[in-house]
């Protein structure tokens, strides 16, 4: 009886649900919007910065090096962030992520060679690993169990709408004042605004403990598995968990294709910087906005069907892009890819969250996001090597489409929609 009273009291002080926590949920949305702005400035302009250092258009592996550094660092920091967040709280990790962002625009602005750009992307990986991981984890903490898909969808929609619109804005600014001055002004203004609003953000670890108390009484610490045990279980020993992790890897290989190879492919076919920004921006904006309904859809019908459909649509969009020679096919292909990403992206995160008890939520999401963002590094090496050997970007499109289709089939065969928690 005392344990039940303890759980009820904890939930009364920290009720779950998006509406019940609209103020804090909105502040987390604002934080992830700023996170999206930071990555957008990098995506939109850095391929153009390569020209400042004499990086040849055909040096695909060299161009992919900044994505490789980003993916390796962000993947590792996602995992670390999950463990730190479960132990010390979400807000300290979020603050550390914003502090790590400060060197990014400064390093790019003063860079004397390409390796300074790679170093800036290391800081970007640290910042993104801490900041975006904490915003999505915090919004899941605040939401009720039947709103996880919606919560993740709102988070990802906010971030990727920012990526899309800011990518266009950064490209426009770069056209008028130069790529590096644009990144400096855009980056420092965004980081300053994020830190100014962070003071009003509350740590959501208290909501986690309240949720656990509701489920298990006053036994808060219990025998929660370690970060290492959670990582091994979900990565290799749990059939559905490992399928979700590989899906994360493959969707980032596809996103690496968009990040590195699409601009080169479009440019080789006569597209300008603004046109490239428009095409990649349409993909990101549709991806982002569509997640406002795809996450809610999965809350109602389950995660599996939207995720599998998303992988097949994404593969189809890549094929259509490869077949196209201009905007007549590239634009609808970008839209199809955006819808596919929206169906799979947030629902992979929600599916992993469904499998994790509250006290290891940070570790479980950190594990998934480790594998997902390591996909950037795998994609940079794989696609860069393929393009380098072929002296063209197009073969990388066909390999990526095949991988994406196979990944969707793996999930269709291995994942069930039970929402079963893995202890």
Could you characterize what this model shows?
The longest helix has 30 residues, at 148-177. This protein has 16 helices and no strands. 58% of the residues are buried. It has one domain (2-216, 225-414): Up-down Bundle (Growth Hormone, Chain: A), CATH 1.20.1250. Residues 1-6 and 419-423 have low confidence and may be disordered. It has helices spanning 2-13, 22-49, 60-88, 90-101, 103-110, 114-142, 148-177, 179-198, 205-216, 227-237, 239-268, 273-301, 304-323, 327-354, 361-390, 394-414. The protein is mainly alpha-helical and 423 residues long. It is globular.
Q: What is the fold's blueprint, element by element?
A:
Blueprint: H1 2-13, H2 22-49, H3 60-88, H4 90-101, H5 103-110, H6 114-142, H7 148-177, H8 179-198, H9 205-216, H10 227-237, H11 239-268, H12 273-301, H13 304-323, H14 327-354, H15 361-390, H16 394-414
What key phrases describe this protein's structure?
423 residues; mainly alpha; Growth Hormone, Chain: A; globular; disordered C terminus
Give the structure's gist in a few sentences.
By secondary structure, the chain is mainly α.
């Amino acid at each position: 009886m005392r344990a039940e009273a303890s759980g009820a009291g904890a939930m009364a002080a920290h009720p779950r649900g998006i509406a019940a926590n609209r103020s804090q949920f909105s502040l987390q949305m604002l934080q992830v919007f700023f996170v999206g702005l930071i990555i957008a400035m990098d995506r939109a302009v850095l391929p153009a910065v390569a020209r400042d250092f004499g990086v040849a258009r055909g040096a695909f592996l060299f161009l992919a090096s900044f994505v490789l550094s980003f993916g390796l660092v962000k993947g590792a920091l996602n995992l670390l962030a999950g463990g730190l967040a479960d132990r010390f709280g979400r807000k300290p990790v979020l603050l550390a992520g914003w502090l790590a962002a400060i060197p990014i625009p400064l390093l790019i602005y003063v860079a004397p060679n390409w390796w300074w750009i790679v170093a800036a992307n290391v800081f970007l990986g640290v910042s993104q690993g801490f900041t975006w991981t904490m915003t999505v984890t915090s919004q899941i903490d605040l939401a009720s169990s039947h709103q996880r898909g919606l919560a993740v969808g709102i988070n990802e929609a906010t971030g990727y709408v920012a990526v899309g619109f800011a990518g266009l804005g950064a490209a426009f600014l770069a056209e008028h004042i130069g790529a590096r001055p644009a990144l400096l002004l855009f980056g420092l203004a965004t980081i300053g605004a994020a830190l100014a609003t962070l003071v009003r953000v509350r740590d959501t670890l208290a909501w986690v403990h309240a949720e656990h108390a509701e489920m298990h009484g006053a036994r808060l610490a219990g025998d929660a598995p370690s970060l290492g045990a959670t990582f091994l279980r979900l990565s290799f020993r749990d059939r559905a968990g490992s399928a979700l992790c590989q899906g994360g890897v493959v969707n980032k290989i596809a996103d690496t294709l968009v990040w590195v190879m699409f601009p080169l492919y479009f440019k080789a076919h006569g597209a300008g910087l603004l046109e490239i920004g428009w095409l990649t921006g349409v993909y990101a904006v549709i991806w982002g906005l569509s997640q406002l309904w795809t996450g809610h859809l999965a809350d109602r019908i389950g995660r599996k069907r939207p995720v599998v459909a998303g992988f097949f649509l994404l593969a189809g969009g890549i094929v259509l892009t490869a077949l196209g020679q201009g905007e007549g096919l590239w634009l609808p292909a970008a839209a199809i890819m955006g819808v596919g990403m929206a169906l799979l992206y947030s629902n992979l995160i929600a599916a992993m969250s469904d499998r994790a008890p509250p006290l290891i939520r940070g570790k479980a999401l950190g594990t998934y996001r480790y594998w997902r963002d390591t996909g950037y590094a795998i994609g940079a090496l794989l696609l860069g090597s393929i393009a380098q050997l072929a002296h063209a970007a197009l073969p990388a499109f066909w390999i990526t489409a095949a991988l994406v289709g196979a990944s969707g089939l793996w999930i269709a065969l291995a994942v069930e929609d039970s929402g079963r928690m893995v202890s």
